């Protein structure tokens, strides 16, 4: 087996909480805690979790929009965190990002052509004329007309704007794209179009995606594998069908049960998840999920559960009781993975 | 360059500004006044604009010609030609003199024509009368507008450049730099302008540029508050993060992305800042701590008018008063028009 395209090891990102006249450090937000995972070339890893669980911070740390506190991010054989800035700049063309909000992710004072062309200008790729042709080709690739090149973002709908954002991300022919909730700000009717565009672009250009979302059904549709995050940690990771058919972490189970179901008769019998997400400034000791977990035992507040292999290959779970509660979690699925 | 290119938002604002006719006309009027004052030398001057004398052309506006050039009688030998006299004597000789509409410059003491001492009330010779040194009031108003307008525009321009640079750096780089520089600005801004100017004015005789520099020390920081918060807000928007994730340089992010989005609303402050500069200079001139003595200025005229020996000589106080009022009204109308053009709610109009 060749080395994965992206290999994240023990990544930690903490934000200092400051206050007072001289901005003393008062505490830390544990945004990302000891996260390790890898992504193979050409696959899509879906990253799900509640809002505030650190999934966006993780994506932003990989693309170096945030500086990680510790850990390593190996992309295509090179540690992004250790690269000097000049080489990091050259690497950036292979890593691009699609942003969540199509209204604020495009500069309102630049034309569509200027927006899509900007990465080419920054990386001095091709002559003026070549860049112009490239921009037209990119716009057509994402399903826009090349005549729209001189229009401004405010003249477009959310879905079209997101297509422009995708065209911009593709401009440098990247191999890896981080999509941070790319469709959650769109109308439901447009979501499917943009999602299908991303799928067909992946096939055409052999792209690798890290797809961040809080919407399980979307992640299920696009992902080869899924990672579930809770309070800065990955609690479960594995192939999509395994996560959906036999989740081994109680949090994953409750997430799946919480997803809306088309037919009320199929609604899960599980109780909705209890309580509030704890503060990431003072996360609970041991397993961070134990205050809300129906299967918690006293030992859960003492040890941080390691992410360990479970039953199927590639399936890893961070729960000390995973083998005991297997039966409890394997109830008939409320939503079948195929419908 | 895209920095000044008119994107649709700016174009819409300009269109809306023009639709508020009053503000638009006020801008035209004030611009005409300013442009006219820039050409003061051709409007109020004791030198002719053009002279045709014995087959030769002369343009003496910016050039000294001794009286001997035009064969004028001259008891001193090398004093300047008297063009008013030349214009009179030229009639019917084939020579020809084009005088400015106001035939006096603002420094000239017109004593010889009158029997009584100045100030003289308005008459045909001096439309707005003369001041207590026999100088033409209209000429002094016009030159005073020019010097205070130029002074104020330079003050606002330099102050804006420094303020935008510092405020942007604070907002963009944030952290310790922001924390420290903001404290420095807060302490600096508690210095009382008037006391410092009076103090420096007693130590030095301020020149134009020295006064500009002193006032600049108190002018630049007001815009930093605005730019600082504006950049804090803009830089967290996703389009800036998109640029960063592509590897755009700080320079590119600031000048291509942040400033075009943050700087435009500064336009709304500018008219009020300019008029503020004019009045500050007028006030300092009035107090005697402004520009040095012979410089024509509105404040100096008001100071004269309020002297006890000049009580009741209304032309001395009314003319600078009208000039100041007109400028204030025009600038307020312009500012209001710009504010309305920038208002995102089109229905909240004040008329």
Question: Would you give an account of this structure?
Answer:
- The complex is a heterodimer of chains A (339) and B (351).
- Chain A has helices at residues 55-62, 85-92, 112-122, 128-141, 158-170, 188-205, 216-222, 240-245, 250-258, 326-329; strands spanning 6-19, 24-39, 44-48, 70-75, 78-79, 95-98, 176-180, 208-213, 225-230, 233-239, 308-309, 316-317.
- With 339 residues, chain A is an alpha/beta fold.
- In chain A, strands 6-7-8-3-9-10-12-11 form an eight-stranded mixed beta sheet, with helices on both faces. Chain A has a four-stranded antiparallel beta sheet with strand order 2-1-4-5.
- With 351 residues, chain B is mostly helical.
- Chain B is elongated and about 80 Å long.
- Chain B has 14 helices and three strands.
- Chain A binds chain B through residues 23, 60, 63-65, 88-89, 92-93, 95-97, 99-101, 104-110, 114, 118-119, 122-123, 152, 154, 165, 168, 172, and chain B through 2, 7-9, 179, 237-239, 241-249, 252, 257, 260-261.
Summarize the structure.
Chain A is α/β, with parallel strands linked by helices. Chain A has 10 helices and 12 strands.
Q: Give the N-terminus to C-terminus distance of chain B in angstroms.
A: 36 Å
Strand order of the largest sheet of chain B: 2-1-3
Give the SSE string of chain B.
HHHEEHEHHHHHHHHHH
State the assembly state of the protein chains: heterodimer
How are strands sequenced across the largest beta sheet of chain A? 6-7-8-3-9-10-12-11
Strand content of chain B: under 5%
Low-confidence stretches of chain A: 332-339
Instruction: Tell the overall outline of chain A.
Output: globular
| Helix proportion range of chain B | 55-70%
Rg of Cα set of chain A: 21 Å
Average pLDDT reading of chain B: 86
The separation of the N and C termini of chain A measures: 33 Å
> Sheet bearing the most strands of chain A, described?
8 strands, mixed
> What's the main sheet of chain B like?
3 strands, antiparallel
Helical segment count of chain A? 10
Which value, in Å, is the CA radius of gyration of chain B? 26 Å
Helix-strand category of chain B: mainly alpha
Report the largest inter-chain contact: A-B, 32 and 21 residues
Strand content of chain A: 15-25%
Chain-averaged pLDDT of chain A: 87
- Broad shape of chain B: elongated
